[in-house]
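Thread title: Can someone regenerate the structure for this chain?

I was given the following input by a collaborator and told the matching structure tokens would be attached. They weren't. Posting the sequence so someone can regenerate them.
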Amino acid sequence: MESRRGKNTKNEVLGRLDVNTSNDENPLETAKRLGASIGGPLGEKCFEKLELALASKLPPRKFANVSTLRTRTHILLYWRRGFLKTTFLREYAKTIPDQFRIVLLSSATIEVLCGSIFVPKNPFLRPRIVPPALAGADFAIITEHSSFLKHGGPTVAKLSFLNDKLEGDEISNKLVKLGQIQIDPEQKTELEKLGIRYEPAEATLSYTPDLVMLSCSHLFDRKTLSLLIESGHFDRFSIVQVQVTPEIAKECFKEEYSLDKDLQEQLKQQNEMLCKVKIKSLETPPHDLMTPVYEKLFDLTAIPDFRVKGDILRTAASHMVLRQFSEGNAKEVYTKQDYSPKDVIFISEKLRDFVEPRINPLVAEGYSALEKTRKRDLAKGHSCRFLESSKRDGKIGEPLRAIITYVHSKMPYVHYQTVNNALQELVKEGKAEKVPGMRGYYRLVEKKGS
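Best answer:
Regenerated them for you:
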């Protein structure tokens, strides 16, 4: 599906824009400075990656000389909770040109992702298609990837569906098992705008996704991470993985970061100019130019994941497009001759960032202990601490809903029934009790002699 871009001017058809050459006019440098204003070095690193991802949306879906390799770069900001991931995504999204359709997702069922048919009770009204949530989207922003996968249906089914979307492969969904459903004819135009084809004989929706996914997540537990790696979902992202050290935490607290709105507006204007030329063809870098990068790659790991090569080629291509733009050479067709040693140096300096998340992905602290300790025991401990705090505050007790919410903040994937079972065990053990006369409220049992 083609992005909705503005009409090309005569100069743009000739393949060139008039742009001054300076760091101040380079969107990549502007993005880094904007990120730094929000979150220092961490923000700088993230905004650089996000800007490269934006540039990957400009050419066709596949490279001209490698038709099996997608050009789109998907980003996953991946580190512990509470350190600006969502803020980075939301503020960067404000610099994406208005011509692009952005879909914000926090949770979605399989039906929402695949699309469905709404059949009115009124027999005089025609059924209508509920389009898939990401059909026609240019960018999908997910501010908590882990929760998005966990809620709204089986994770495995979601992963299979999302992987196809991330690769840009054609998707075909059968919406009903039996019968032929004719939809409202007036909806045909609406579906065509989203690139959706509907086959009434089989009640099938077909479309080709063409989006860039920008997502973030706190660290996955061991079980979830294993599933994401085995399914190939984790490796479909260019991952910004950060081990938040005490030094990084101290810097975030000591420094007085403040969003530079002038830089944000400047970056949006640069991105709007960048997107005026519709790139019709893009080739990968020449192999001989990339040889030093591959040699350095094998110094870092004996057997690198082959998907790393795709990440490297996509990033090199995006860097080249942004570099050419900043030098006043924006074009509609980019060939191997448009790459330079500057693009190779850029990749070489960041090579470890491509490899580290794959050979040493971070895992949520404490969740490895679940292999030896029951989740219910952990829930009991968190519940006791919450009720103890409530007691110190002079409260008569806490409702079950509040207890579950607190435990979820400590154990995001625990089922509510596990928390309820933990409370019942505490009652049996004489450590907690139901508050008389207050349905669903619990409190700690007063210790004798206290």
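The longest helix spans residues 27-55.
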